[in-house]
Design a protein that fits this description.
single chain, about 475 residues, mainly alpha, 23 helices
Length: about 475
C-alpha cells in the first residue's frame, strides 16, 4: 500500500512543483495588470475570463471525465478508439460553439456588460476556447500515462510565453487589454503544438459509436455539474459588480487571487489523485489506502491554511523595489484571504470524495451536488454582499464549497463507503479551530506580531506531529522513499 502511496506522492510532487512554478509566474501578471490598467479595464478582463471559464465547460461537456474513466479501464475499444472518439467529438462541437460566438460577437458584448468596442475580445476568446478545448484530451492522456514531467513542461512553457508576450505587447508596443487575450491565444496554440505528438500517436479517423454512447452517458451529467462548479468559482464577479462597482471587484479579485497557494495544493493533488484512484480501485486494500490519503491531505491542507492565514499580511507587505505582491490600494481586502483559503481546502475535500463517484459510475449525482453548490453560492452572494461587501462574497464562496464537499461525502459513503480516520480528523479540526480563535482574539486586542505568529505556528506543528500524524506511517514512507533513491 505504501508503495502505491509513494507513487501518488511522487506524481503529486512533479505536478505540484510545475504547477506552483507556472501559477506563480502567472500570478506575477496580477500586480503587472493592476499597476498598468485602470480598475474599469481590469474589471472587463475579469468579467470576460469569468465567462470563458463557464463556456469551457460547454466546450468539453463532460468528455474529460468520461475519457479518464474509459481510457483507464479500456472496457470498450482499444487505445486509439478511447482517444479518438472523445477527441473528434470535442473537435466538432468546438467548431460549432466558436463559430457561433464569432458570428454573435457584438451582441455578446452587450449580454455580458462590456462596451461594444471590445467586440474583438469576444472573437479572440472564442478562438482561445476552441484551441484549449482541443488540447484537453491529449493532456489527459499524458496524465493517464503518468507522463507528469512532459505534462508539467508544456504547462510551464505555455505560461512563460504568455507572460513574455504580455510584457512585450503591453509595455513595449503599448497595446490595450486586447493584448492579454492575444498573448493567451498564442500561448494556447503553443500548448496544442506541443501535445500534437500525442494526438498523432493515438488518433485514427474512426468514430466508435458504442464507445461514444457510453462516454456521453457517463460524461453529460458533468456538464451541469461543471457549470455548477464553475459558477461557484466565478459567479461572484458579475454579482459583485452589479451590487457594488468595478473598483470593489478589483480589490476583491486581487485579494481572492492570494488564495492561489491553497488552490495550487489542491490542483496538484487532483492531477495525481484521479489517475491514482482509478488505477488502484481494484486493489484489495484500496479503501484503506484512500482513507490514509484523506488523512494526510487534510494534515497538509490545514497546515498550509494556518501558515498562510497567519503570515499573509506580512508576505503581502514585502517591498520589491517599490512594488508589493498586490498594490497597497488593495490591502484593505486582506481579511478575505483566510476565508478563501478555507474555501479552497473544502474544494480539496470535494476532490478527495469524488473517487467514489468515478469508481461506482454515479455521475448522475455530480450535477445535483454542483447545482446545489451553485444555487447556494448565488443566493449567498445576493444576501451577503449588500451587508458585508467583499467579505460577503468570500463567505459565499466558502459556504458553497463546504456544501458541495458534504454533498459528495454523502453520496460516496452511500455507494462506496470508506471508513475515514475520523478521530484523527476531528483532532486536526479542533486544533485548527483553537489556533484560529487564539489568533483573532490576539488580533482584536492588537497583541499580534511576527514573533507571536511564529510561536503559534510552531506550537501547531508540534501538536500535529506529536498527537495526529502517525509516526510509524511517516517513518515507513520516508524509509521507502530513501530506499528508492539509493537503489
Amino acid at each position: 500500500m505504501f508503495d502505491k502511496l509513494k507513487e501518488l506522492t511522487k506524481d503529486t510532487a512533479i505536478y505540484g512543483i510545475s504547477t506552483m512554478i507556472g501559477r506563480f509566474l502567472n500570478f506575477i501578471l496580477v500586480p503587472f495588470y493592476t499597476n498598468i490598467f485602470v480598475p474599469g479595464d481590469y474589471g472587463i478582463v475579469m468579467i470576460v475570463y469569468s465567462y470563458i471559464a463557464i463556456l469551457n465547460i460547454f466546450f468539453i461537456y463532460g468528455m474529460d471525465a468520461a475519457f479518464l474513466k474509459y481510457a483507464a479501464f479500456k472496457d470498450i475499444g482499444d487505445d486509439k478508439d478511447n482517444f479518438s472518439t472523445p477527441y473528434i467529438s470535442v473537435f466538432l462541437t468546438s467548431i460549432f460553439f466558436s463559430g457561433l460566438l464569432i458570428l454573435l460577437n457584438k451582441p455578446v458584448t452587450g449580454w455580458i456588460g462590456i462596451p461594444v468596442e471590445y467586440a474583438s475580445v469576444i472573437i479572440l476568446s472564442s478562438v482561445i476556447l476552441f484551441v484549449d478545448g482541443n488540447a484537453v484530451i491529449p493532456f489527459l492522456k499524458l496524465r493517464l500515462e503518468r507522463k507528469a514531467k512532459q505534462f508539467a513542461a508544456i504547462k510551464v512553457h505555455n505560461i512563460l510565453l504568455n507572460i513574455i508576450l504580455n510584457v512585450v505587447l503591453i509595455v513595449v508596443l503599448k497595446w490595450g487589454i486586447e493584448a492579454i487575450f492575444i498573448s493567451n491565444l498564442i500561448a494556447s496554440l503553443l500548448s496544442l503544438v506541443l501535445v500534437s505528438p500525442t494526438i498523432t500517436k493515438y488518433f485514427k479517423l474512426s468514430f466508435h459509436k458504442v464507445l461514444f454512447k457510453r462516454l456521453f452517458r457517463f460524461g453529460i451529467p458533468y456538464l451541469p455539474a461543471g457549470i455548477g462548479i464553475m459558477l461557484v468559482q466565478v459567479v461572484d464577479v458579475p454579482i459583485l459588480e452589479k451590487l457594488t462597482d468595478l473598483d470593489t471587484v478589483g480589490v476583491y479579485k486581487a485579494n481572492y487571487k492570494l488564495g492561489i497557494f491553497m488552490m495550487l495544493f489542491v490542483n496538484m493533488f487532483q492531477y495525481a489523485w484521479q489517475p491514482f484512484f482509478l488505477q488502484n480501485a481494484k486493489e484489495e486494500n484500496a479503501k484503506q489506502m484512500f482513507s490514509k490519503v484523506m488523512t494526510y491531505f487534510s494534515i497538509v491542507g490545514f497546515t498550509l491554511l494556518i501558515l498562510l492565514s497567519l503570515f499573509v499580511d506580512d508576505i503581502v507587505r514585502i517591498n520589491f523595489g517599490g512594488f508589493s505582491i498586490i498594490g497597497s490600494q488593495y490591502w484593505n481586502g486582506l481579511d478575505i484571504v483566510p476565508i478563501i483559503l478555507l474555501g479552497y481546502l473544502f474544494n480539496g475535500f470535494y476532490v478527495v470524495f469524488s473517487a467514489g463517484i468515478y469508481i461506482e459510475e454515479k455521475s448522475m449525482y455530480a450535477p445535483i451536488v454542483a447545482g446545489v453548490g451553485a444555487i447556494t453560492n448565488i443566493v449567498s452572494n445576493i444576501l451577503l454582499i449588500p451587508h458585508f461587501n467583499i467579505m460577503g462574497a468570500a463567505f459565499a464562496t466558502l459556504i458553497s464549497y463546504a456544501v458541495m464537499a458534504f454533498g459528495y461525502y454523502l453520496v460516496t459513503q452511500k455507494y462506496y463507503r470508506i471508513d475515514y480516520e475520523y478521530g484523527r480528523l476531528f483532532k486536526l479540526i479542533l486544533v485548527g479551530t483553537v489556533i484560529a480563535v487564539l489568533y483573532y482574539v490576539l488580533k482584536s486586542l492588537d497583541e499580534i506580531n511576527l514573533l507571536i505568529k511564529s510561536a503559534i505556528f510552531i506550537v501547531y506543528v508540534i501538536i500535529v506531529f506529536r498527537f495526529i500524524a502517525d509516526q510509524s506511517e511517516i517513518k515507513i514512507l520516508v524509509e521507502k522513499l530513501i530506499k528508492k533513491r539509493t537503489n
